[in-house]
Amino acid sequence: MTAGRLAGMAQRNTWQRDRVRTALGDAAGFVSAQDLYAALREDNTGIGLATVYRALATLAASGEADQLQSPEGEAIYRACSTTGHHHHLICRNCGKAVEIEAREVEAWAQRTAAQHGFTQAEHVVDIFGLCAECSAALPAGSESPHTHVHADARD
Ligand SMILES: [Zn+2]
Ligand SMILES: [Zn+2]
Ligand SMILES: [Zn+2]
Description:
With about 160 residues, the protein is α+β, with helices and mostly antiparallel strands. It folds into two domains: about 1-80, Orthogonal Bundle (Arc Repressor Mutant, subunit A); about 85-140, Dna Ligase, domain 1 (2-Layer Sandwich), CATH 3.30.1490. It has five helices and six strands. The chain has a three-stranded antiparallel beta sheet with strand order 1-3-2. It has a three-stranded mixed beta sheet with strand order 5-4-6, with no helix packed on it. Helix 1 packs across helix 3 (about 50-60). It is flat, with a radius of gyration of 21 Å. One zinc ion binds next to helix 4.
C-alpha cells in the first residue's frame, strides 16, 4: 500500500522533527545543528546529523524557529517565543539570546527603502556581543579584543 507507506514515512519524520523541536526549546539560546546533534546523541535518540539539519530547515521555513548567521558564518537556530518580526541580542560566547523590538530600526528601514524607491523591503538586524555574565567572567583587562594594552609600564 503506497499511501500507507507514505503515511508511515511522514510519521517517522514528524517524530524526529518533534524531538529536534523539543531539543531546540530546551536550549538556552541560539545553537547550531552540531550542538543539537550532540545533545540528541547524549539522549540516545539515534537521530543523525543530516536529519537534524533537515528538521531545523523545516522548522525555520515554517516559522517555528529563528535562523540566523553567527559572526563565523555558521547557521544557528532558536525556538523563539515571539512569532512576529523581531530582533535579537545574542551572546557570541554562550549563545544566550534576548528578543528585542527595535521601532527605530523599523522606521529607518522603511524610510531608507522608500527613499530609494524600494517596496516590500525586509531586513535582518541582530546584535552580537557578550552577555553580562560572560563579560563579568572575562579576565580583567580583556574587555575588548580591539584594545591594545601596552604593558611597558613606566613609573
Ligand atoms: Zn527570536
Ligand atoms: Zn554569554
Ligand atoms: Zn525589524
